[in-house]
C-alpha cells in the first residue's frame, strides 16, 4: 500500500511536530513519520524531570502548538494532546530507509517495506541518534553510557560526566540534585569555557560547584577508562580518580550517510558540517527541506519556528519573514546603504571568512549576539590597552593597526574579510594595539560568548582563526621585517598539536628537522649529564625550539617537554630552511639564538664535575617550582627563607595598599630547601579565573597582571576555578572618609583603624556585608611596584617571571 501526500515530514521532534501542526491547520495533506513508538523522541529522551528552557526569550514563537519553559513531562503531555486535537496524521514505528524521486513525486521507503509518495519532504530528524563516542583505551567498557534517563536511579556512586554542553551540564545537575542519593558527581570540560552551553545552565552548574554538590574539572580530558577508575589528562599531568559510571555527552553528528544518499550536499567534509540550505530551508536536492538541529539550529523555539515557516513556504507564502527579522532589522538599521536584512546577510556570508561555512540560519543566530557598526575613515575601533574580549570581523573596507605607539603613522593593514582582536578573545589580555578604520568600514563585533560558540561549533571558522593566530604569532616571534606573504608556506603547513603535561616534544639525540613554536603553556628543557637529566631552562609561550638541529644538521641537543598542558605549532623544517635562505636577517637572528643555547650547554658540560651538587640542587629546585604551577605563571612571588625573618611586613604592606585586605598568605604554600612559594596570584598566561566570569570583571593588564574590577558580583566562580587557592571572597571594605568627615561627623574608619574591624563593629544588626573576589593585582597603578617586595627589609621577597628565574644563567651568575 502506498499513501500519497503533499508533504511528508520525517521526525517528530519540536521542528517536525510544529511543521505537522501547521500543515494540519492549513488543511494540507501530510504525514508525520516517527521511527519510535512515541512523539518527540528528542524531548522524550531528556532525563526525567528535566527543566526545558524557552530561549531566546526575545524571539516570538510561531507554531500551532504551545511551548513555554517547564518540566519535560507536562510539555510532552501538552504536545500529545494538541497533536491529537489538531488532527495531525502521525505514523509511529515508521523508520525511513531511503528517499528517491524528484520534487513533486518523491518515494519514501520504510523499514517495514511500505512506501509513501509525497510532493515535498521535510527532514526534521535531528542528530541525537548519532552520539560522539569516547575514543580512549577502555572507552567501550560497560559502565560507559551515552544517555541518562532517570537521575534518581543512581545512588551512592562516583559518576563522571564527560561533556560541557547543555546535555552534560543538565545530566550532572540531575545526578547531584538530591543529597540523599549521595552521588559524587564530577564533570569534565576539555577547555576552560563552557562555550556550547546556555548561560543559565552554566550559572546553575557553578552554583552547584560552589555548594560542593559537583566538582568541575576544566582543562581536563579522559585518558583511559578502567573498572572503577578513570585516568585523567589534566594541565599538570595524569591523575586517577574513582569512577563507578561514566556518562558521555560529547555531542552528536548528523546521519551523514543517509542524508547524502538523499542527494543532499553539506557545507564541507568536516564531521560537524551541516547541509547546504537556502533561506527557505531547501537543500541542494530540490523539494527536500531540512529544519531543526540538522539545520544547525538546536534551540526549541528556533526549531518550532522553522517547522511553521517551512510549511508556509511550501504552501506558497512568499511574504513570510523569519521570526527573528525584527531583531536583525534593528541590528542593521544604523548602517549605510539601505540594504535589506537578506542583503546584509548575503554580504556578510560572502565577505567574512569565518562565516563562509555557516548556513544562513546559523549566521542569523550568531548575529543576534553580535553588533554591526559602520566606521568613518580614521575613526578608532579600539585603543591600545583597552579592555575587550570580543572578536572583530571586517565585512567591508579595511583597518589599520598601529604597530608602534611612538609612531602612529606606522601601521599594518588588515583587509576586508579577515578578523582582528583574537588575542583579547583567546588570552583575555588588553588590546595590544590601536586599530582604526583605514577607509569607511563595516565591522562585525561578536561577543566573547558568540565567538567561542562559533569556534566550538564551526570547524571552518576555527580553522580560519587558528591560521590567522598562527600567522600573527610567527610574525611577532620571528620579526626581521617578515610579511604574511613571506611565511605563507610555513603557515599552510603548520600543525597545532596539544601536549599533555610531561609529554616530550623533542628528544635529546634524535634526528629532526621540524621547528616547534610554543603557542600556549610552557616547556622545560633538560639535558642528560652523567646519566641524569639536568634542568637547563624554562620556555614560555612565544618561544621556539628545534632550530639548532635544523641549521647545522646535528642531533637534538636536549629534551624539551611540556611543563603543563600546552599547545605547540609544528613548522615544516624544509619550509623554514627555504625561508632562512631568502631572509638573511632571520638567519642571523636564529644563529644568535642558537649560539646562546650552545653556550648554556657548554657551561653545564664544563661544570658537571666541579658544580655537580649545585647543578643537582638547581635542577631539583626548578622541578619543584614547575610542580607548583610556576609553569603557567607570568609573574610569581618567591621568598628566600634563608633571608626571611618572619616580620610579616609583606602581608601588612599588601593590606595597607588594598583597603585593609591582604592578598597574600606568606606562611601558606610549599617550600623546597630555602625557597618558599607563598599563596599569591601567579598571573597565569591563560588565567583559569577568567573562564566563567559573568560580568567579565577579570582582566589582564598591559604587563600581564590579572586583576578584578569593581563590576565583580561576588558569584565565586573565579575562586572555584583557580587551582592555586589564591582567590577568596571577602566583604567589601567601606570607603575611607575625608579627614574632616571622620573628625567631626564620625564617618567611616579613621587613620590606623582596620577597615574590616570597623565594618564589623558598625554594621547594622544582622546585616551581612556584600562579598567580592579578592586577589593580588601586582599593585597595578601604585607607584614603585608590588608593595610586598618594597616592604621586605631583607630582600627575601622577589617577584619574577619564570623564564628569568628558571635559567642556567642563574648558575653562571653564582659561579
From TrEMBL:
Keywords: 4Fe-4S, Electron transport, Iron, Iron-sulfur, Metal-binding, Transport. Residues 354-455, 478-597 form the Cyclic nucleotide-binding domain. InterPro entries: 4Fe4S_Fe-S-bd, 4Fe4S_Fe_S_CS, cNMP-bd_CS, cNMP-bd_dom, cNMP-bd_dom_sf, FAD/NAD-bd_sf, RmlC-like_jellyroll, RnfB_subfamily. The keyword Lyase does not apply. Coiled coil: none annotated. PANTHER family: DIMETHYLSULFOXIDE REDUCTASE CHAIN B, OXIDOREDUCTASE. The keyword Zinc does not apply. One of its GO terms (molecular function) is metal ion binding. Residues 635-667, 671-703, 704-732, 770-803 form the 4Fe-4S ferredoxin-type domain. This is Cyclic nucleotide-binding domain-containing protein. Pfam families: cNMP_binding (PF00027), Fer4_11 (PF13247), Pyr_redox_3 (PF13738). PROSITE patterns: 4FE4S_FER_1, 4FE4S_FER_2, CNMP_BINDING_2, CNMP_BINDING_3.
Amino acid at each position: 500500500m502506498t499513501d500519497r501526500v503533499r508533504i511528508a515530514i520525517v521526525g517528530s521532534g519540536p521542528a517536525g511536530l510544529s511543521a505537522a501542526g501547521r500543515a494540519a491547520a492549513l488543511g494540507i495533506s501530510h504525514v508525520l513519520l516517527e521511527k519510535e513508538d512515541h512523539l518527540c523522541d528528542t524531548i522524550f529522551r531528556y532525563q526525567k524531570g528535566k527543566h526545558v528552557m524557552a530561549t531566546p526569550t526575545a524571539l516570538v514563537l510561531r507554531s500551532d502548538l504551545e511551548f513555554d519553559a517547564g518540566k519535560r513531562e507536562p510539555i510532552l503531555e501538552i504536545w500529545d494532546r494538541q497533536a491529537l486535537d489538531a488532527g495531525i496524521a502521525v505514523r509511529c514505528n515508521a523508520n525511513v530507509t531511503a528517499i528517491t524521486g524528484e520534487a513533486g513525486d518523491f518515494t519514501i521507503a520504510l523499514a517495514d517495506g511500505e512506501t509513501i509518495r509525497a510532493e515535498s519532504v521535510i527532514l526534521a530528524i535531528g542528530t541525537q541518534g548519532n552520539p560522539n563516542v569516547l575514543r580512549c583505551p577502555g572507552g567501550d567498557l560497560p559502565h560507559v553510557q551515552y544517555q541518562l534517563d532517570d537521575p534518581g536511579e543512581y545512588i551512592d556512586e562516583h559518576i563522571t560526566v564527560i561533556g560541557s554542553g547543555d546535555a552534560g551540564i543538565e545530566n550532572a545537575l540531575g545526578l547531584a540534585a538530591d543529597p540523599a542519593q549521595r552521588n559524587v558527581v564530577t564533570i569534565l570540560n576539555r577547555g576552560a569555557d563552557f562555550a556550547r552551553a546556555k548561560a543559565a545552565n552554566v550559572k546553575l552548574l557553578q552554583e552547584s560547584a560552589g555548594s560542593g554538590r559537583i566538582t568541575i574539572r576544566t582543562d581536563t580530558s579522559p585518558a583511559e577508562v578502567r573498572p572503577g577508575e578513570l585516568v585523567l589528562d589534566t594541565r599538570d599531568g595524569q591523575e586517577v580518580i574513582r569512577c563507578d559510571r561514566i556518562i558521555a555527552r560529547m555531542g552528536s553528528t548528523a546521519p551523514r550517510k543517509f542524508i547524502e544518499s538523499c542527494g543532499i550536499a553539506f557545507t564541507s567534509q568536516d564531521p560537524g558540517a551541516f547541509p547546504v540550505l537556502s533561506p527557505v530551508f531547501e537543500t541542494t536536492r530540490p523539494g527536500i527541506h531540512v529544519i531543526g538541529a540538522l539545520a544547525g539550529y538546536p534551540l526549541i523555539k528556533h526549531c518550532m519556528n522553522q517547522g511553521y515557516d517551512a510549511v508556509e513556504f511550501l504552501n506558497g507564502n512568499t511574504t513570510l519573514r523569519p521570526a527573528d527579522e525584527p531583531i536583525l532589522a534593528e541590528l542593521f538599521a544604523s548602517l549605510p546603504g539601505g540594504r535589506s536584512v537578506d542583503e546584509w546577510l548575503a554580504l556578510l556570508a560572502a565577505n567574512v571568512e569565518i562565516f563562509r561555512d555557516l548556513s544562513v540560519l546559523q549566521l542569523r543566530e550568531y548575529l543576534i549576539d553580535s553588533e554591526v557598526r559602520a566606521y568613518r575613515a580614521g575613526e578608532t575601533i579600539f585603543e591600545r590597552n583597552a579592555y575587550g574580549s570580543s572578536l572583530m570581523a571586517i565585512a567591508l573596507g579595511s583597518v589599520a593597526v598601529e604597530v608602534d605607539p611612538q609612531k602612529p603613522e606606522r601601521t599594518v593593514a588588515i583587509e576586508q574579510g579577515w578578523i582582528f582582536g583574537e588575542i583579547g578573545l583567546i588570552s583575555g589580555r588588553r588590546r595590544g594595539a590601536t586599530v582604526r578604520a583605514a577607509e569607511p568600514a563595516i565591522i562585525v563585533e561578536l561577543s566573547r560568548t558568540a565567538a567561542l560558540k562559533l569556534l566550538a561549533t564551526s570547524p571552518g571558522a576555527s580553522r580560519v582563526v587558528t591560521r590567522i593566530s598562527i600567522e600573527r604569532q610567527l610574525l611577532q616571534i620571528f620579526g626581521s621585517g617578515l610579511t604574511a606573504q613571506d611565511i605563507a608556506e610555513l603557515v599552510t603547513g603548520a600543525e597545532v598539536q596539544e601536549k599533555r603535561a610531561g609529554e616530550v616534544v623533542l628528544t635529546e639525540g634524535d634526528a629532526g628537522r621540524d621547528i616547534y613554536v610554543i603557542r600556549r603553556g610552557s616547556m622545560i628543557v633538560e639535558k642528560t649529564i652523567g646519566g641524569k637529566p639536568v634542568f637547563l631552562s624554562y620556555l614560555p609561550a612565544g618561544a621556539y625550539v628545534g632550530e639548532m638541529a635544523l641549521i647545522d644538521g646535528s642531533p637534538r641537543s636536549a629534551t624539551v617537554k611540556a611543563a603543563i598542558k600546552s599547545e605547540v605549532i609544528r613548522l615544516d623544517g624544509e619550509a623554514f630552511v627555504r625561508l632562512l635562505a631568502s631572509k638573511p636577517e632571520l638567519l642571523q637572528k636564529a644563529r644568535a639564538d642558537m649560539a646562546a643555547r650552545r653556550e648554556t650547554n657548554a657551561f653545564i658540560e664544563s661544570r658537571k664535575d666541579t658544580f655537580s651538587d649545585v647543578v643537582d640542587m638547581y635542577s631539583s629546585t626548578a622541578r619543584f617550582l614547575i610542580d607548583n604551577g610556576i609553569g603557567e605563571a607570568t609573574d610569581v612571588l618567591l621568598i628566600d627563607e634563608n633571608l626571611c625573618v618572619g616580620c610579616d611586613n609583606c602581608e601588612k604592606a599588601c593590606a595597607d595598599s588594598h583597603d585593609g585586605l591582604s592578598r597574600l598568605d606568606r606562611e601558606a604554600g610549599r617550600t623546597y630547601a630555602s625557597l618558599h612559594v607563598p599563596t599569591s596570584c601567579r598571573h597565569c598566561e591563560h588565567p583559569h579565573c577568567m573562564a566563567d566570569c559573568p560580568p567579565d570583571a577579570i582582566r589582564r593588564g598591559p604587563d600581564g597582571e590579572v586583576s578584578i574590577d569593581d563590576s565583580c558580583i561576588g558569584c565565586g566562580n573565579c575562586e572555584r576555578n583557580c587551582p592555586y587557592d589564591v582567590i577568596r571572597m571577602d566583604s567589601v571594605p567601606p570607603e575611607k572618609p575625608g579627614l574632616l568627615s571622620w573628625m567631626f561627623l564620625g564617618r567611616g574608619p579613621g587613620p590606623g583603624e582596620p577597615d574590616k574591624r570597623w565594618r564589623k563593629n558598625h554594621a547594622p544588626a544582622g546585616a551581612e556585608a556584600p562579598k567580592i573576589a579578592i586577589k593580588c593585582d601586582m599593585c597595578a597603578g601604585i607607584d614603585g611596584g608590588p608593595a610586598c617586595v618594597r616592604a621586605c627589609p631583607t630582600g627575601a621577597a622577589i617577584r619574577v617571571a619564570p623564564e628569568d628565574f628558571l635559567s642556567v644563567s642563574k648558575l653562571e651568575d653564582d659561579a
